[in-house]
Each structure stands twice: as C-alpha cells, then as structure tokens.
Amino acid sequence: MSRIITSESDTDNELSSQPSDLSTSQLLGQEPPEPLVVAGSDRSITMERKLELYSRRLSQIGLADKDDSSVSSASEQVVKTPTEQAAPRPIVAEKVRIKFIPIGSIPAIKPSVCKISAAQSFAAVITFLRGRLAVSHVFCYINNSFAPSPQQNVGDLWRQFKVGEDLIVSYCGTVAFG
Amino acid sequence: MSDIHHLVWNGGLNTQIEIDKSLVFMDDESKPLFINVRLPRESYFVLYASSLLHKIKLKLRKDIDEVLPYIWFEQDGSNLPWNIPIGTLHDVMNPRISELPIEAAASSTSILVWKIRMVYGQELPQNHIPLTNGLEQVQKYWMHQWKQACFVLNGTSKQIMSMKMDDSKAFWQSVISRNVDIFSSMSDKIVPSIPRNIPVMVHRQNYMDFISQPLVIPQKESWKTTTLQTVLDSSEYTTTEQNTLAVVCQGIDVPCSILIEELYRDFVSLDGFLHLILQQQ
C-alpha cells in the first residue's frame, strides 16, 4: 500500500464561503496511513484509486517496490512513500466536515468549515492548520475538551464526537485545556 | 475492582533490550550490549527509558538528559510508539501464544523473551511523537487520553476536568508507582455504572500505524446483549475477514461471545481505552 500526498497550492489562500478541502494542502511531517486524495477531475480520482489498488495487490503478493516512487499527471503531483507500515484500511471515499474555532488571540481561518478525507490521520489536520496560520505549532482540541493523538483517524473521531454534521476542532497558540 | 483486573495490572513481559551501539562506548567488534528487564504491560516505554539508561550510564557516550529526547524502541525495524501501552505494542508485534511452537509455549523450563532495540538518532521515526517536555508531556498526553475516554463513556469530560488537583496528581502517580488500588479508586470516578458508549481502540497485527476507534454503542439500548461480536460486526475493517481473525486483549485470546462492557471493566488499559488486537488465525 502506498501513501499519497497531493498539493494544489492555488486553492490554499482562497477565501470562500464553501467548505475547503484539507486534502488539497501540502502535508508535511507525520503522514496519514492512507489518505485518499480527491483533486482534479473524477477521472484522476479513478486513476488514483486504480494505482493504489494495484500497488496494494503487488504488496500482497510481495512484488511491491519498497523504494519511493512518484507519479505525476498534468493536474496534480502524487508522491508515493514507502509502503511497509501502511495499514489494511479499506479505501474510503467519504469526506467529513471539520469546523475550526479559534481560541484566544490566534486568527480565525476562512472558511471555518473544511472537508477532509475520513481516512486521514489527525496529524494531517494539525499540519493543515499550521500551514494556514503560518505558525510553528498549534494546540488542537475536540469539543473544547481533549487533544486527540496525532495517529487517530479523522473519520473515527468524526463518528465518535461530531456535533450535528461537524467535528468541532478548537485551536490555540498556547495550551488551552491542560 | 475484579481479580482479573488485578492480574491484568500486574502482568509483565520479560524483555531483552539491545542497546544501540551509537549510544555507548564500544568497539565495532564488541558484542552488543543487552539489558534484561521485566516490564509491566500496563505502562509506557518512555517511563522506563531513563532508568534503563541509568543501568548503563558508565558506558554512555553522552549525558542521559541529552539523549533521552532522541531515543526510541523498535522491534524488527518497526518503531514502538511510546504513547501506546507496552502490552499492546507487544501483542501487535508478536504472534499469539497459541501460535508459538509447542516446545516454546508449553515447556516449564523455557521463558518467553521479547527482544527489542533501544535506538538513538537525531532523526526520529515518522510515527514517533517528539518528546520536548519530558515526563510532563507524557502526563498531559495520558490525561488527554483519559479525557477522550471519559467523553466516550459519559458524553462529556466533566468528570475528569472537575477532578480535584490532588486527585488528578494521585491518579498519575498511581501509574508511575503502579498502585492499582489508587488507580482503580480514581478511574471509578470516571467510569459510570451504565456507560453511554465504550472507548475501544482496535489494532492490527504487525501494523503499528493502524489504530481504529469504532463507535461502540449498546445493542437495543442494553449492554447485556452487546458482545465483542457485535462490535466486530459493526466494524468496517473486519466484515470481510472475520472468520480468519482472532481477537487478542491483554495478551490472551478473547471469545467473541463475551459482553463488551464486562471485557472493558476487566481489561481496560491505563489510558482508559480497551485495546483490542486483531490477529490472523
């Protein structure tokens, strides 16, 4: 199995009333186990899935290339990273909504509601916020209560702790809920 | 607290830790340095890192405080994240006892030993949470895990957030000093008699990065009929392969017919979650 990171820098700074897409931000640092990135046309999505399935089948029969490899298309850049620790999660096309609420003097992000692939880890959310706010670190809390582990799956958090249809993520530049 | 939970809390693992050569003074041709120790299942590696380094402090190249933020543990090249209980890490990375060769599992003279490495490096593994604030960071992480578990159990974290400061400190100290009675008295203030949901984390054998957190709700509004099988049935990750999976909790196979609430009360880990490991049969 492989991990896929997609960058669409054009959309990152746009202000819009529509929910934005976390998967379009560039992900650095700790990467999610198997993000499914939806970017560009439906055709590119299908191709991406096919590549991922193909890679998974190769892994299962021991033919996968352990080295990094990259695939790029006209609309997006896809980087594959080593596969040995990838988890057997099913491909989930579902996206979930996250509502970001600033605490204290940290700026609000616009739009405040974003969509993210349910297969991402919470580390991707933290990385997204750090990028949007241009800060070196940010403290995130679910429901003004607890900070989840970076390895936790966003889809799982959404199912467990959503309010209405949104997962409420409060963020702060300093510790808010020790 | 049940006798089973006492047994779970006192469970330990015979562990042989190979020390990274870059940590200690030794020739390239020297034999590797090992530390043999029995580690409790219900604890975190990071709580023992300092005392393990003290055992070899005369051979260390640098001060203990200098190397502590840059060490981690691994098995067969896979990082063992410090933020997951030791027993769970062992069960994820190793086969079940029933799968071991008969002579190893049944012999009265053999001891099962978990062989791992203590590694040192400036570049930390990808799934390793950097330790920037020592044990205080570990305490905060652990407390947030409990807040999360409390939220799942009660629908709010009020029970733990309104805990007295002294109680909160005593709760953490019970983890450090391994005092099961104080730990139980504190956790009893958080776990209600009838939980709303049950905090469960599902791991997969040999996949250190896989953590799934299924929504465990009572079937027909009663925990009396909600079994482990019910949880597996509702899990999107196991429906296609349930017949080939065994469920391991605290090192033992658990039957799918067991009531999930009972399993939680007896087998809950130090972070307030029930850690289940899915292994191939």
From TrEMBL, chain A:
Main function: Ubiquitin-like protein involved in cytoplasm to vacuole transport (Cvt), autophagy vesicles formation, mitophagy, and nucleophagy.
Species this chain originates from: Maudiozyma humilis
GO molecular function (one): Atg8-family ligase activity
Membrane topology category: Peripheral membrane protein
Region Disordered, annotated ranges: 1-41
Subcellular location, record wording: Preautophagosomal structure membrane
InterPro entries for this protein: Atg12 (IPR007242), Ubiquitin-like_domsf (IPR029071)
Compositionally biased tracts (Polar residues): 1-28
Alphabetical UniProt keywords: Autophagy, Isopeptide bond, Membrane, Protein transport, Transport, Ubl conjugation pathway
Pfam families registered for this protein in UniProt: APG12 (PF04110)
Protein name listed in UniProt: Ubiquitin-like protein ATG12
Family: Belongs to the ATG12 family.
Subunit and partners: Forms a conjugate with ATG5.
GO terms, biological process: autophagosome assembly; autophagosome maturation; autophagy of mitochondrion; glycophagy; piecemeal microautophagy of the nucleus; protein transport
Highest taxon, organism lineage: Eukaryota
Annotated GO CC locations: Atg12-Atg5-Atg16 complex; autophagosome membrane; phagophore assembly site membrane
Automatic annotation (TrEMBL), chain B:
Molecular function, one GO term: Atg8-family ligase activity
GO cellular component, one term: Atg12-Atg5-Atg16 complex
Domain Autophagy protein ATG5 UblB, first and last residues per copy: 197-278
Compartments where located: Preautophagosomal structure membrane
PANTHER family: AUTOPHAGY PROTEIN 5 (PTHR13040)
Family: Belongs to the ATG5 family.
Subunit structure: Conjugated with ATG12.
Protein name: Autophagy protein 5
Source organism of this protein record: Maudiozyma humilis
